[in-house]
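B., you asked whether I could sanity-check this one before it goes into the benchmark set. Here's the sequence:
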Amino acid sequence: MGVLDQEAEVHTRIMNNVVIKDGIRNVLGIDGEFQLIHEDEYINGIVADFSIIVNNKIRAIMECKGGHIGVTDYVRGIGQIFQYEYFSEKNITPKSLEYERNFNAVYIFPDSVIRNNMFNIAKFKYPKSVMLLEINENNNAVRLISEKELKELEEAYESNLVTISQYYFRDNRIFELYILLKYLLYLEQRGITECNRRELEIRFLTKIGTINNGNWRNAFISLSNLGLINNRNMLTQAGKNMAIMNYEEFAVEMYNSYIKVYFEQIYRIFEGNNILTMTNQEITQRIKENYRNRDVLYLTQSNGRYISSWMNIMRDDYGCINFEPRNSLRKVIYNPVDLNIEAFKRKILESSIAYEYIDKYTMLIQKGEF
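And here's what the prediction gave me:
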């Protein structure tokens, strides 16, 4: 899809991409249509990147930034959104429109802002009404950066952790997320418009017998955090786009959008060898050595727990590494970086264990046990 280094590129994609517009709608909780006014002028010569109008009221004013941004420009953007909140408090608008009671000042930027810049977005003061939104540059999914995530990023800064990515999948395999997306799409096609997570887990999902069969709650949380389901536990447009894929396509999309940087750090430890005899704790330590003995967020923390999770994903979802439980002998089957997309999909099809669970899901649906 391409990077969003420049702010103008972000503006263009927001205006033209239905997935991004749908993501903004879902995060803001807008039912139905909304009007997006580009470069909307207010007072004192202040031009907002976008105003969002719902039912002839201002629901949000939005400030955009590109991925190639320094701290000064980022802080300037925060200054803008403080002014947007002030406008709502004083009902200042050149259009004689009222503000929605649940008005938000929105700061939206691509995912690269978090992983590629020297500043930490959690170490700034924001307006009370702010919503920080992130656009995934690969699949255009829009997600809310929660207070919990900001706290984790702040703690990472205070603990001197390296942040190479903001994504983690809460003790689930990737194919479990895929099955849940497929199931939610199936329910939508049957006319369902809202789901209860616990009810779906008890009634159907546990019948599939996946590896993390007691962790469907975490699968819902992961999909929500990625902007793939909305607050009614139904698919966003980004979620639908991924749910209609076959598993190989989905796994490649997840790799490129969220996972690649973690795999690269693990393959780096092999140093070109196909065999490695190291425990998860030893792999953790080797990765830390590449970062001057600093922990890497969601990778080297918790005494090898995160490494264990990523290694399981590499083995089970992608089949690119093989090892036995509680065995430190690791064997590389293939490295995605060496493959084009079609070859990568063929390797997944040949090597992943996902298909036995996907087939079980399909069988249950066909039998009417949904």
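One thing to flag: The domain at 7-147 is CATH 3.40.1350 (Trna Endonuclease; Chain: A, domain 1). Otherwise nothing jumped out at me.
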